[in-house]
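**Reference record**
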Amino acid sequence: MVLTQRSHVRRPTLEDVARQSGVSKSTVSRVINGEARVRAEVVDRVRRVISELGYVPNQGARQLVTHRTNAVSVVAAQPENRLFLDPFFDLLLRGIRRELALHGAQAVLLFLEEPDDYARVADYLGGGHVDGAILFSLRPGDRLAEIVDRLGLPAVFGGRPLLRDGDPVRPGQARVDGDNRGGARLAVQHLVALGRRRIATVTGPYDQENSAADRLAGYRDVLRDAGSPPLVERADYTRQGGADAMAALLDRHPGLDAVFVASDLMASGALQTLRERGRRVPEDVAVVGFDDLTSIAETTDPPLTTVHQDTEEMGRLMARLLLTLRDTPGGSPERSPDRTPGGAPDRTPGGAPAGSSVIVPTRLVRRASA
């Protein structure tokens, strides 16, 4: 039997990079850690040598120096099966992952489904495994908001959860939200302009952040100005919930001629019910949704008029803000006031975070349903 000796290729070291670059080890470390005290030409030379040698920094040693894990927890207060059935969350997560990847970071997805999950998630967040947390679908007063505050962990909230004293943002924290109230006004104003006078709405759950409440408020704003009575049915941001809510509205208000549905997923269910009840869309009942999820809005029958918000960009903004909080001395960028409904946004979606609150603007996308 012949034994072959396995050869071991020596991994390039920090010293190798420094020697070939003609700089000190500390300079190489500063380049790797992204510090600003290195001339651009030196940065380029060191990075070129790193690429040529195939040098991979020791992540454990890097953590000791930078106190960073380059990992971010994404915590969803949603059942796992429901989360992945909703295209909205898929786009949101895609934006988060893509932005983190640009900065060499990764997302760790955690779910809150049962009361016992809070202790498990709190232990993980407090264990030094992540640099911060992105949290969404929290209910008003959710304990997780208090947990991240107590841990002093940088945190970005998706939506507008109610925290202490009604203040949605504290030092070291930020939020990203769509203009829910303004977008709802756009939807209902469009229906009024079409001559519709008995306009109903299917809302989301009132205990999920404040998006449902804000969209309902925008609906009421316009109907109050138009002098029309509100016709409201609550649902749960699911397709079946939208179908059931539409059936309940038709039973109570058979003469309704339009409906603003607070999500595209619910709107797809509402359209199904209208079709089953023999109501023509838009001739008998005009329908407007919210989110502009093209996988839904462009494939419904008829295609759905809806309020557009850039969901993937919202995810990118959450990740970008979280990394800014992590890298900012004191843990918080300069704060900017929330935008008032109908006012100018703090920052356009493509821009860098302006402060601790970013409200993403909305616009109406007209298709055949209204």
